[in-house]
Amino acid sequence: MTALLPRRVRGLVSLAEALLTPHGADRYLELVDPMLVRREIRGRVTAVRHQTPDTVTFTVRPSRAWQGFRAGQYVRMQVEIDGVRRTRCYSPCGAQGSDDLEFTVKADPNGLVSRHLQDTAVGAVVGLSPADGEFTLPSPRPDRIVLMSGGSGITPVLAMARTLVAEGHPGEIVFLHYSNTPADALYRAELAELAARHPGFRVVNAHTHARRGGDLHGLFSVAHLEKAAPWFREAETFLCGPAPLMAAARELFENEGLSAQLHTEEFAAAPLAFDTAAAEGRVRFARSGRECDNSGKPLLEQAEDAGLTPEHGCRMGICFSCTQLKTAGRVRNARTGEVSGEENEEIQLCVSVPVGDVEIDA
Amino acid sequence: MTGLQDRLTPAQVEEFGRELDALRQRIVDDLGEEDVEYIRKIIKTQRALEVTGRGLLFAGFLPPAWLAGVAALSAAKILDNMEIGHNVMHGQYDWTRIPELSSQRFEWDTVAPAENWRHSHNYIHHTYTNIVDKDRDVGYGILRMDPAQKWHPYYLGNPVYATLLALLFQWGVMLHDLEVERVVKGERTWAENVPVLRRIVRKASRQIGKDYVLFPLLTGPLAPLTLLGNASANLVRNLWAFSIIFCGHFPADVESFTEEETENETRGQWYLRQILGSANITGGPLFHILSGNLSHQIEHHLFPDLPARRYPQIAGEVREICERYGLPYNTGPLYKQLWSVAKKIARLALPGKPGPAATVDPERQLRAA
């Protein structure tokens, strides 16, 4: 941000920072208007609608420090609930390059933040991170593309579809979307409209819990894929959705020898298993001097149990907010099962379980 | 004097600890939006006072504007250091996970760097409260504040050192973090002090740069007046902070302890020591805010990580618990506590005991038994 300013302005900015030490300019500017902050990114909600009873779709205008995103990436969104700031990852679903960000969030019956967001109102301000994530379209774009999603997993894939249409993609694109019933299908009208506008773009609506009102019915299968995109073997496929859909697709692509052509984004990670009974060793948090017995839980929880408040986001290994330096010992990655014992290695606290003594620089 | 361990029976002290734990848990469970709104309101007030104060000094050629500017800036610095800085840096708002309220990230408007202070204050002082030779806040390494500190002719200057410390308090706190007396004794090496010193130089130059160079220069011909105004605001804050902090642990009847009697303390015994080693100051709501609620030093020492705005709410209950266990609850108005501290500083300049030792009211002990 500062690098973009001409030198004289930059001089004024650093003079202002020096005068406003130790708190810095943002801590004063935000009192005038939370959107005036320079270093952090915030977004103001400018429109809200409910496509289905358990989802909310809202548009956010980001503050100056926002640097854009690539279709398929996610941002960490922060909201305050009962005085506590909560962070969750959501993918903007507008086309890459648009000024405003659009989000669609489905209420999870046990989800604190997703339920809170259902009541989002115009004018609300949320915290945002720079966009992150590797689930993006390659450049140059593949000729044939299958976009596949289930439920609210539609968001990153929809961003890709809108981007490709905006770019006037010359090849073939199929958007295969799974929802329970026609009433649960998000963005149905928008997708139909996109398809009408762009000749190479086709939408296939699949319903897992309805026999009519769509193009395909029942759970994902190779037959579905053959019908939707008979040429999928020559295409690149981008998929985001619930775990069973992801698992079924992975299996299919593996059997076909096509794993390299399937690109996925995990939103709801499979529940992690921890063997707390077999835990041994001590965990030391070097910077704070706290130490505890290894409880067998992920290091993020152990740190919190020890009274620390490390930065974190998704708590399931996706967002890398909780990455810290491990200075000694071995940890097991609860998602992959991989054990790693490299010294001075950066690990994600939320999915790393100590194997014996571990020291973290936190 | 009744020894620390003889105050209550082991069963009593554990029950007493459990009662305080329960009290703490009740407040922890109740923390929420109101606490965040409160501290945000204080921060907003502090920022407004600061901007107003700095702004008024641009009209410092008018005596009323200069005076009002100094008053606003002094109040801003007091709020920043006491109700905001001290409390945020204790981790009182860490549960909110809001970065600007995080104990690890907060930096305050004083020359002592936050990181150094967190070690010397949050860890050393709050762990070893009033243990002579362990708690470095007892006399700040320069004063004799307890008869257990061996007398030396150097201490004849006690009142002079105390006056200087009050005037230059922020510098005293800053140098305190260097633990010079431990380096002299060979318990700490200069090498360990390198990072501490580096932070000091960085922080102090920023503070000096802002108050004594940049803002005066910005006011052009008024530079000397602005400099004087900023120095006055720092002085007012120094005197205020010194007064509140010294009234927290050093009035008469507040006890100090030996390392031996505090070995292998249980949680209940630790609570007991915090109560016996702290003193409150009575006053109105505004006084409590300006003192950072350190006027509730007893509650603060029991629960240093609870938001300070909760201390007045629980003070009655803490006092009631103390009374039931026959424990003193040292409190009084500011002038009385200050006078008591001043007398102690003067008496301890001379060798010998500072008059009759504090004793526990035998009737209260009976009731507690």
Task: Describe the structure concisely.
Chain A has helices at residues 7-19, 26-32, 112-117, 154-167, 188-197, 222-228, 243-255, 299-305; strands at residues 41-49, 55-62, 75-81, 84-90, 101-106, 125-128, 144-150, 172-179, 201-207, 216-217, 236-240, 262-265, 282-285, 290-293, 323-333, 339-340, 345-348, 352-360. Chain A is of the alpha/beta class. The longest helix of chain A is centred in the middle third of the chain and has 14 residues, at 154-167.
Strand content of chain B: under 5%
The largest contact between protein chains, plus residue counts on each side, is:
A-B, 18 and 33 residues
Number of strands of chain A: 18
Output the radius of gyration of chain B.
Answer: 21 Å
Largest sheet: number of strands, sense, barrel closure of chain A: 6 strands, antiparallel
Oligomer: heterodimer
Q: What is the H/E string of chain A?
A: HHEEEEEHEEHEHEEHEHEEEHEEEE
Give the overall pLDDT of chain A as a whole number: 90
What do you see in this structure?
Chain A has 362 residues and is an alpha/beta fold. Chain A is 21% helix and 30% strand. Chain A has eight helices and 18 strands. Chain A has helices at 7-19, 26-32, 112-117, 154-167, 188-197, 222-228, 243-255, 299-305; strands at residues 41-49, 55-62, 75-81, 84-90, 101-106, 125-128, 144-150, 172-179, 201-207, 216-217, 236-240, 262-265, 282-285, 290-293, 323-333, 339-340, 345-348, 352-360. Chain A has a six-stranded antiparallel beta sheet. Chain B is mostly helical and 369 residues long. Chain B has 15 helices and no strands. Chain A binds chain B through residues 15, 18-19, 21-23, 27-28, 31, 80, 82-87, 289, 309, and chain B through 31-37, 43-44, 47-48, 51, 91, 94-98, 100, 102, 104, 107-109, 123, 203, 206-207, 209-210, 214-215, 218.
Layout of helices and strands:
The complex is a heterodimer of chains A (362) and B (369).
Chain A: H1 7-19, H2 26-32, E1 41-49, E2 55-62, E3 75-81, E4 84-90, E5 101-106, H3 112-117, E6 125-128, E7 144-150, H4 154-167, E8 172-179, H5 188-197, E9 201-207, E10 216-217, H6 222-228, E11 236-240, H7 243-255, E12 262-265, E13 282-285, E14 290-293, H8 299-305, E15 323-333, E16 339-340, E17 345-348, E18 352-360
Parallel strand pairs in A: 7-8, 7-11, 8-9, 9-10, 11-12, 13-18
Antiparallel strand pairs in A: 1-2, 1-6, 2-5, 3-4, 3-6, 13-14, 15-16, 15-17, 15-18
Chain B: H1 10-30, H2 33-56, H3 63-89, H4 114-127, H5 158-167, H6 169-176, H7 180-184, H8 190-218, H9 223-249, H10 267-276, H11 285-290, H12 297-302, H13 311-324, H14 334-347, H15 362-368
